[in-house]
């Protein structure tokens, strides 16, 4: 190669490098989707208003992940979440879960929630679908005069503007009509949002709460985007731009399906999902009025509501699924999710050796040993690979507070969320060794203080050096189911 050619090649490489910084590059071709991930909540039980996940291979039959326990727990706002939506970035390198900040099980009435509820959404962020940030609040409705709440959030990437459209329902008075309308803001990071604008309003006093948009390839049926909304009916609309003009296609009353108007099967929480590899979609509808949970109706052409048909070949798993969203996932994403939450890590209790009717449990984030633990999940843990060292070490992850681990702090024990720090992960990591009082049982040696072991004293868990027979008994446990 001549020096001239070599120099030209180098210059060209520099130009390409600069262009990659200056110009937005298209995302790499997406890997094919191989499965489906559903985020949902389950209801108004003690832990029902948190983030649950379910997995499906065919888009019709679902299995609960994490042994039916929540995978994320809100520690902000009302400390409860409903109506979760999963959002993937166009490049597939970042994910968000956004949800309603609401916990009816905490004693809030529906009227209080609608008229004086949280105006913020709860947000989590992840790079891989399995390791999630701590949750944060984003105040989306605070700038709306008289806003009573912010419910049922959704988000979709808008290629026309290069950011995300976040939309939700807010209850307020406009032109004398007090009702829910769908508002929207734009965001790039789900932390700062633009001033909210009205997105959908129905005529008269008809409110609208639940709406979800799906993008379809090739404008199947005549439009690029379709949305389904719970507004007395389940109304289907189409558009070629997210923030442009929407056309009413019809509703599902001819199928005996409504959102309260005209009776029939009364549903809410419309949830779209395209079948992998083909132009066919399920619209999942929550049969909340009868408590039967989600059912799918299927269409290969969303341009007419007459193309929908009911299905009976589906299963939603063990837990009841309430308003959520479905993400089509690649083989790599599916592998990570199933490795993390695919029910492969058993649920265990930690039994005391010398007080055998008592088990390690958390209560108000403190840790002790008790008998007759209620709720039972307070004494259930997964022994996962050690956060600081996964070779021969374990960490104790709470079943009903996923992402929270037993850690020592000042030699006392607490249940705390993993903050990702080196100190936290070392404090939450232990070597599983032969029991100090009985080698057929187990003791747990501290990773960062190897001269100390987990033991109970006056029924409270501590991290102490063990120097006598009492200490050896206190530091000995059985891992059981």
From TrEMBL:
Signal peptide start and end residues: 1-29
Keywords from the UniProt entry: Hydrolase, Signal
Location of the Alpha-L-arabinofuranosidase B arabinose-binding domain: 349-479
Recorded GO MF terms: alpha-L-arabinofuranosidase activity
GO biological process: L-arabinose metabolic process
Pfam families: AbfB
Name of the protein: Glycosyl hydrolase family 43
